[in-house]
## 1
Amino acid sequence: MNRTLSAEEIAQAVETLADAIRTRTEGKPIALVGIRSRGDEVAERLCNLLADEDRELDLGILDISLYRDDFEHLHENPKLQESDIPFTVDGAHIILVDDVLFTGRTIRAALDALSDWGRPGRVELAALIDRGHREMPIQPDYVGLVLETNRLDHVYVSLENTDGKDFIEVVEPGSK
Ligand SMILES: O=P(O)(O)OC[C@H]1O[C@H](OP(=O)(O)OP(=O)(O)O)[C@H](O)[C@@H]1O
Ligand SMILES: O=c1cc[nH]c(=O)[nH]1
């Protein structure tokens, strides 16, 4: 059966992420880097929740399209958007942020993309949803919500600024 998560459940998951980051980084300087698309919106929400603290908090956006391991199989004119990292990556404590963590291939690509910007001191990973089924040795440091899914399910994330409305749907194959 398909499962839907509400805007309130998404807000709670973002709060969970922010609380864990706040606790574990203890006021030290950090930079949140959201992965397009939707990871950027999650990173922005986290930044708003963490912004009232007395510490350096940077925000950046990473487009990983050119670094995907299936890039050659994508359609001829993939939509490329710019990355925007307005701080010094060398030595920084960076927290990559994405909406869904599934196989881990996007994060592998993001680490590759990030290395073009410099050599961070530390990189961690925050995922709003961990739906399991990893194909790479990549695990999150911070998780908003763990969703039990079957390998062939699809987790659709819709966020207000990107898509107009907050909801998440876990869709079983053949049911839509
Ligand atoms: O762990 P993975 O198997 O890589 O899957 C997770 C990725 O899948 C989705 O992105 P998608 O590739 O659908 O692109 P989009 O965010 O631009 O829609 C999602 O936003 C994650 O970035
Ligand atoms: O279910 C999935 C798989 C990859 N990316 C998503 O956003 N959802």
Note: The two ends are 11 Å apart (CA to CA).
## 2
Amino acid sequence: MSYKILEEYTQEYTEEIKDSYLSILHSVGENPERAGIVKTPERAAKAMQFLTQGYEMNPKEILLSAMFPEEYDDMVIVKDIELYSLCEHHMLPFFGKAHIAYIPNGHIVGLSKLPRIVDVFARRLQVQERLTHDILECINTTLEPKGVAVVIEAHHMCMMMRGVQKQNSATTTSGFRGEFQKSETRNEFLRLIGK
Ligand SMILES: Nc1nc2c(ncn2[C@@H]2O[C@H](COP(=O)(O)OP(=O)(O)OP(=O)(O)O)[C@@H](O)[C@H]2O)c(=O)[nH]1
Ligand SMILES: [Zn+2]
């Protein structure tokens, strides 16, 4: 299946990324021949392929693979979906939770597919704002629900480990389409996710 978690790595990419990490090890003053890190360029190359596997995946296909006709037309919420992504500015992690809601319009979607598409978009170089809209638009244009809402709360390592070095700040982004543009519906969603 196109959305299977990456278990096999492309030899060509592994070799290419490995060479780049070898060069980074040299540049930071490490000895790449040292026993402890002799395999590090290869490990890091595989880790980087894992963390960016979203480029190879088709999120619309994932949703389309499990859409079922159903008359339920109240709110469906999947909250507290953990996510790990890489900021496109520093290639350092940002991590947190996504909360997704939609109001079906003749079709429901397999619940697991929502966290799956979060992972597809998170496993690319991202900014939190675009990640939020990517998820929102994917659901809106594929499922064509009566409404969709996405809230992401995240911590950015580039603001913690370096730069401004703030340990307790969190960033919240949100997007609302359709029925969620009405304050009553939006407030019900925010109340149900505990905001
Ligand atoms: N809007 C947005 N900004 C982000 C995100 N992730 C990281 N950034 C910011 O991207 C900005 C890049 O700013 P620059 O001034 O070019 O980079 P920098 O000199 O490393 O900035 P500092 O982090 O302030 O040291 C920083 O302000 C980061 O905090 C994100 O998801 N969304
Ligand atoms: Zn950053």
Note: Residues 11-27 form the longest helix (17 residues).
